[in-house]
Design brief:
251 residues; alpha/beta; 2 domains; five-stranded mixed sheet; two-stranded antiparallel sheet; 9 helices; 13% strand
Length: 251
């Protein structure tokens, strides 16, 4: 980081101050002027002979990293809506009593769950923050553009190729726009109307579809769980049918 180290450290302390007490989450290395941090990624260690689908998130949340599992309960012990919705949709039918960080990690690592797919959990950006936009605010736009973005692209492409992913599902419009051949703007209304938002992963030498669904925390409708389930049902059918057809999008 060189001369940028001190200013990056100062901004990181401001943004992440309440999380810096977590062991090994963030370490500032003054001697070599670098920052070491913990992140999260989950690739099953056992094959279940089901199609491999990557669940693509923006970046880790510090509290989830501390808890040891993606989308863990928050500091108020409230469960992330991701888990009951994925159970409703049959993608991850894990009973609520087994949805603590330790059991979830074990179950997902072993792919010891029902459902049509073997799931990879992956964050596009590795650095943990409350919100993805905090990364560029901490590191500065120039460092983000010159270092972090190229590293994210390379690591994502490498992981896609090495893990034999057959499809990608993301919950974040910005990430969808970064990695897909097509861009989308208005999408919540499209999803609520039952549209399939689909494109192709760019920059790789094989055809891999990417789908956009509701954000993991979206609950802004009385029937939000049904809307979210319906979206995942539509995506599941498209993946299992081998759909690589024209995407539905609103640019």
């Amino acid at each position: 980081m060189g001369e940028a180290y001190e200013s990056i450290k100062e901004r990181a302390i401001i943004k992440l101050g309440k999380y810096l007490e977590y062991p090994d989450l963030i370490t500032f290395n003054r001697v070599d002027r670098s920052i070491t941090f913990s992140t999260e990624r989950l690739i099953p260690t056992a094959s279940s002979n089901r199609p491999r689908v990557m669940l693509l998130f923006s970046n880790p949340h510090p509290y989830s990293v501390h808890q040891g599992m993606f989308l863990s309960r928050n500091s108020k012990e409230q469960e992330n809506l991701f888990w009951p919705v994925m159970e409703d949709a049959g993608w991850l039918p894990i009973p609520e009593e087994n949805r603590n960080p330790e059991q979830l990690m074990d179950i997902c690592l072993k792919a010891n769950y029902g459902g049509p797919f073997e799931l990879i959990f992956y964050c596009y950006y590795a650095f943990p923050t409350d919100f993805p936009e905090d990364i560029s605010r901490i590191f500065g736009k120039e460092y983000f553009r010159r270092v972090i973005e190229p590293e994210a692209v390379d690591e994502f492409t490498k992981t896609i190729q090495e893990t034999s992913v057959e499809a990608v599902v993301t919950f974040n419009k910005g990430i969808f726009n970064f990695v897909s051949k097509d861009q989308i703007e208005r999408y919540i209304e499209c999803l609520m109307e039952g549209e399939l938002i689909q494109s192709q992963i760019k920059g790789i030498d094989r055809s891999i579809p990417i789908f956009l669904t509701f954000p993991t925390g979206w609950h802004y409708h009385r029937q939000f769980r049904q809307f979210r389930k319906d979206s995942l049902d539509t995506i599941r059918k498209a993946i299992l049918s081998g759909s690589n057809g024209p995407e539905s999008k609103n640019t």
